[in-house]
Structure prediction request, 944 residues.
Amino acid sequence: MPYIPHTDTNIREMLAAANVANLDDLFSSIPKELRLAKPLALPAPLSEIEATKLLCELADQNTNAARTPSFLGAGCYNHFVPAVVDHLASRSEFYTAYTPYQPETSQGALTTAFEYQTMMCQLTGMEVSNASLYDGATALAEAILMALHITNKKKVIISKTIHPEYRATVRAWLEDLDINIIELDFTNGMTSLEALEKKLNNNTACVAYQSPNFFGIIEPVDEIVKLVRKYEGTMLISVVNPMALGLLKTPGDYGVDIVVGDAQPLGNRMSFGGPHLGFMATKMAHIRKMPGRIVGETTDAKGRRGFVLTLSTREQHIRREKATSNICSNQALCAIRTAIYLSAVGKTGLKQVAELNLQKAHYAAEKLSAIPGFKLTFSGAFFNEFVIRCKKPEGINKYLLKKNIIGGLALGRFYPELKDSMLFCVTEMNTKEEIDKLAAMLD
Amino acid sequence: MNDKLIFEESSPGRSACALPALDVPAQDINKLLPPTVLRQTPADLPEVDELTLVRHYTNLSRKNFGVDSGFYPLGSCTMKYNPKVNETLCGLTGFAQLHPYQPASTVQGILRIMYELGEYLKEISGLDGVSLTPAAGAHGEFTGLKVIHQYFKKHNDKRTKVLIPDSAHGTNPASGALCGFHAVEVKSDPHGNVDIADLKAKMNNEVAALMLTIPNTLGLFDEHIAEICQIVHDGGGFIYMDGANFNSIMGITKPSMVCVDVLHFNLHKTFSTPHGCGGPGSGPIAVTAKLTPYLPVPTVSSPRWGLNQPISDGLGAIVTKDENGYSLNYDRPDSIGQIKGFFGNIAVLIRAYVYIRMMGPAGLKKASQMAVLNANYVMAQLKQHYHLQYDRHCMHECVLDATIQLKKFGVRTLDIAKRLLDYGYHPPTIYFPLIVHEALMIEPTETESKETLDEFISVMIAIAKEAETTPDVVKTAPTSTPVGRLDEVKAARELRVRYTK
Prediction:
């Protein structure tokens, strides 16, 4: 057991110093009948060589996107992660530290979080950002909770073009809170403005939309804003793909109240769905209602700049049941990765990556929709994902897998009305050759 | 050391990233997207070359204290050493580059890890059902309470309250509130146990659950645990166990023996994922058979291996890629539904899996024994120098306090914590639990050697002497850190939460 340093001599000396006869006596406060008489039924220990061999075998049993071209997106994206991100985030002073409760010895974590907050504000066009939440889905649930607290109203309207798993999460989180959740239908892959207009009233706490939405389409945000702003006090929540903000007008530009999403595309791997990181940004006016940790700037007695966790009175360790959220551990290391990623690609790089996504996705959409039996399901403008109508999406995916391609997402699982459609994603990781091969296989 | 922010190191035109040229025919962006949706000014991100970037974050890391930098006895946080092999293995491309929507047949390796980890957690807890999805301890609390809420809903039993001891983690009441429960505080008795009379007075048919940290945040195993569980169960309520302190009881007892109904693990504490400055963590929950139907979706199924199959020995065991392999199960009608996107913090699950496989049953038990030994050793050596409210064997952490130093010399716990920084130690958890006013909660963990503990003990004794002889030295600490004591009031009053030029 290489992780336990104690020799038998150490143990004897320490037991004596603690005035205890043997190890069992240390546990005397646990009643005898509650103590295990036999060892746990777990596999025998492996050496590092054996464990490595086993895990490599298990890893090899998975088909991964580094070896097999993949066209899956839908909330988790295969993007390029520069090597510096891995190297710097692997500095053990970052990854083996705890939450920065002692600021004098945590300036690395705090400064990086402050930089992250700044970058997320600049990306989203908002005034303040927290230092991360679990993921995009829980960030949306937290944003809705926040809007309910601020407005004191009980009706929540969310568009069905929001990621189905985000909506499921919102339903599970809010179900027991006596809230009325209404899901809006879509037309041509976009939130139905007609439906929105009908459902809005003075009791509406918030309206949530996603753009680019789950189908990859850019929503008519101007129109949504116009309708929502007719009702004073109703808050507007926008779910965004942060990568798209390299090119698209920001939620801040539209006057949105709360912006959430998943920053996985910015420097974090897919990892079979986690860990990713939720982000949230809002207006300064709402900062005290925002969940999660916030890092603020201050000075020490000598006037030196330093950073601390601030506004912690919002947090559960002080206000307990009156807290705005129960989140404690967040996704700090993922946020560090995102800060490093955004610094690496920088101002021009992010725009360039976003453009590569846009151009390649449109090239792929054109190629695929030119094949007989395949056409675009919707006509709206899109970023790096698009929906193709075809016969038997599941069958097509099986066929593609045999040809060593991971296809798109068959939508029937989430939208029975779209069982003849599949969602394709194309990023900077997909070469022209891969796209051409995909098209050739389907032709 | 350079104290600039990355924005202050930025120069227009620099970049640390080489992207490939566009390999498909370029089209006019204004034709691909309506100009009205395009961003007019690019996000004002840093513009730095790669070396500037590397030096910036390397320097920042040097202003940060991690377990690899030194002793980190932060109570209830279990800052033990996390094996490096975990990092290597969870980063394998065959895990890191998997998309959650890949067909099950293409991800049998990772599904097997998830399935087996679930089985191990069931064995370690003695409970019947498990969900790996929660992303952190508090998320696990929320999920566990949701499961309890759902149980009562399905049984048409309207219960609105959860009982929470005054020594509980702050997240407990917040998690209760998030599930629509009203939190009711239960007092501790003079020995640091739950006050039985107070519990009896507050237990009734409105109570859905008692949330109990086992062992509690005083580092103590409640001596009346059986009676407590009996009272709650007799009243029709469930026992929820906050498993943040599980590191002290692995292989010693099972929560099922204690009559726990729901428990969350903090995989990132007990099962060795580094804390990453505050996450990602992972907070799986385990529940009794009665509550299993309500667990969130998805769970991992293995029809072929079956629930009662012996756990494979791992090495060389090949999972056949057939239709009966591992799969994710969403078809669970009584489930509380989905509590986050996808399936959980997978990379943390892999680390926990590797840790359990490498430690084996004897290793896990030994880890708990040594964690408890270390805490008792530190407590025994320091109790002549710092006040000890509850003088009995502790579990993996001990709570001392600076009442003497405060009353006699005006030196507070906070001062002692800051002075420790000057000696190169991360301070213990302070002012928690709330019921010990000048609390210093020390958790040495099993990975620290006797030599390290002896040095720490001598430093704590030296600081106690300083408090007596040169109190100002303690009160003005730290002086050796990149910044001195920071003005937290100013940070909250003059909010600056983003950089502006």
The longest strand of chain A covers residues 204-210.
